[in-house]
Structure to design on (165 residues):
């Protein structure tokens, strides 16, 4: 059973990433440490508290994070913070989705990086392409047990012939 948290971050899933890297876990090659999946309803944008030229994105919706190092820690939350380069891509999809929830799945990978001030860097591997969710269709299908009929596209009408007098 998943633990509930007020926010989902890499730290809430895996603990102190810097200590993980210092333990040598990512010294030879990058390691996937967290899997995050979710359905985003909205994006809350705020100026980064450390650097006012950057934006932090809080994704609002339903999320689950799994610690891939031991696969025992699962955390559910309705607020998710991802590394900026991942959050920006998901946020862009949400803004284009015209109010539909956007589903995504990603593995977060950590690598030792001596050039980084914190000593490590993140990478990500998409598990599914971030895209609008057919949530209502899926719920209707579950409720009725029937395939949801697809609506036909409107027919393009050609030029109408003038009525004969």
């Amino acid at each position: 059973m998943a633990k509930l948290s007020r926010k989902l971050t890499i730290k809430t899933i895996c603990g102190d990433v810097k200590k993980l890297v210092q333990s040598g876990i990512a010294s030879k090659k990058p390691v996937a440490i967290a899997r995050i999946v979710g359905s985003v309803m909205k994006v809350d944008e705020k100026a980064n508290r450390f650097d006012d030229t950057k934006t932090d994105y809080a994704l609002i919706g339903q999320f689950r994070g799994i610690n891939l190092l031991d696969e025992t820690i699962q955390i559910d939350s309705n607020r998710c913070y991802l590394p900026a380069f991942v959050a920006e891509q998901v946020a862009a999809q949400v803004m284009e989705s015209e109010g539909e929830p956007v589903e995504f799945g990603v593995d977060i990978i950590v690598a030792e990086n001596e050039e980084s001030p914190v000593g490590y860097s993140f990478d990500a591997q998409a598990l599914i392409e971030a895209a609008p969710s057919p949530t209502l269709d899926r719920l209707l299908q579950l409720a009725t047990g029937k395939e949801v009929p697809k609506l036909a596209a409107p027919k393009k009408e050609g030029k109408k012939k003038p009525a004969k007098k």
The first strand starts at residue 3 and ends at 4.
